Amino acid sequence: MIMKKIDFNTLIEILTVSIKLGLTSFGGPVAHLGYFHAEYVRKRKWMDEKSYADLVALCQFLPGPASSQVGIGIGVMRGGVIGGIMAFIGFTMPSVVALIIFALILQGLNIRDAGWIHGLKIVAVAVVAHAILGMAQKLAPDLQRKAIALAALTITLLWQTVFTQVGIIILAGVTGFLLYKEYVPDKSVSFSFPVSRRFGTFCLALFFGLLIALPILREITSVNWIAMFDSFYRAGALVFGGGHVVLPLLEREFVPTGWLHAEEFLVGYGAAQAVPGPLFTFAAYIGTVVNGWQGGLLATFAIFLPAFLLIVGTLPFWNGLRHNPKIQGALTGVNAAVVGILLSAFYTPIWTSSIMEPIDFAFAAILFSMLAYWKLPPWIVVVTGAVGGMLIFSTY
């Protein structure tokens, strides 16, 4: 059985919530995980803390945009494959539409140094700090797991390569296996994942099949849209480490080939920093410059398709593995490492690119208090950050 019957109202709810997140989730993938945690775990309780942490850990293993894969995974668990599509559309389309508009109308506008963007970076500091605090209390409560988190923090800060994060997660898994192999899993907590293993296997086969077939089709056909699809699909399929890592791949694919001028690429990058949602939607800007709004939509579909196929293909097998005591012990170590990785990303690039002056730190403390103590909705914090950023920037 591939899919259980999903209530139409559930799908609308998934779409509505994900659109709200897509409109307000500034700050990059780590901040997105903070927004997801606040909305899906704390507020709506669609899943528990442990399941969320396990899903984040799984998505750290997979190539592609981890935060988007987490959102898709939550959507699928809530509403089947269609729910995953709704979650993807809601979270991604606001920034896709914005970047297509930038490409068509505002390519020459320099927005990278705008005050409100500076304010949104400070919002990211508050959101990520809030998320890390909550996750650390639950995922690294003892000295062993604190040590794993500290090691992950130290190594990812000192050796910042695209493979470091994956290597740390593997080492943490081995360490957790050795330390917690007698761990008794909580079988009362289980993913509700309405997709069969057969369908998951099909998705994984399609992922690898396209990865092999598209370059061949590109060479034998010389069709422009196939070449575009291949470039974006490979970028989405082979990138570890988040949106910023995909930028040099896209630059090599499109600037030297003459499809995009270097100046256009930089302007688009500035625009991508200004919009909420995943940085992978930068593909929408490139596709629009190359081939109009249709190219923007094609590029978006191509770069996110690997992420969708991987998460849908992997999750049907994940529930059984995570209830195995030895696997659960490994996951215990991995979850602690995720805390360290998030702390590392919190320092750089989030803290280092946001907190420039004492007034920035004071403003971040206010925004953190709005989230953690006054329990205000994230969108109010985002608006406050944008307005405050303009006021602060004017004092520089």
Automatic annotation (TrEMBL):
<feature type="transmembrane region" description="Helical">
    <location>
        <begin position="115"/>
        <end position="136"/>
    </location>
</feature>
<protein>
    <submittedName>
        <fullName>ChrA protein</fullName>
    </submittedName>
</protein>
<comment type="similarity">
    <text>Belongs to the chromate ion transporter (CHR) (TC 2.A.51) family.</text>
</comment>
<feature type="transmembrane region" description="Helical">
    <location>
        <begin position="379"/>
        <end position="395"/>
    </location>
</feature>
<feature type="transmembrane region" description="Helical">
    <location>
        <begin position="85"/>
        <end position="109"/>
    </location>
</feature>
<feature type="transmembrane region" description="Helical">
    <location>
        <begin position="148"/>
        <end position="179"/>
    </location>
</feature>
<dbReference type="InterPro" id="IPR014047">
    <property type="entry name" value="Chr_Tranpt_l_chain"/>
</dbReference>
<feature type="transmembrane region" description="Helical">
    <location>
        <begin position="199"/>
        <end position="220"/>
    </location>
</feature>
<keyword id="KW-1133">Transmembrane helix</keyword>
<dbReference type="InterPro" id="IPR003370">
    <property type="entry name" value="Chromate_transpt"/>
</dbReference>
<dbReference type="GO" id="GO:0015109">
    <property type="term" value="F:chromate transmembrane transporter activity"/>
</dbReference>
<keyword id="KW-1003">Cell membrane</keyword>
<keyword id="KW-0472">Membrane</keyword>
<feature type="transmembrane region" description="Helical">
    <location>
        <begin position="232"/>
        <end position="250"/>
    </location>
</feature>
<feature type="transmembrane region" description="Helical">
    <location>
        <begin position="330"/>
        <end position="348"/>
    </location>
</feature>
<dbReference type="Pfam" id="PF02417">
    <property type="entry name" value="Chromate_transp"/>
</dbReference>
<feature type="transmembrane region" description="Helical">
    <location>
        <begin position="297"/>
        <end position="318"/>
    </location>
</feature>
<feature type="transmembrane region" description="Helical">
    <location>
        <begin position="270"/>
        <end position="290"/>
    </location>
</feature>
<dbReference type="GO" id="GO:0005886">
    <property type="term" value="C:plasma membrane"/>
</dbReference>
<keyword id="KW-0812">Transmembrane</keyword>
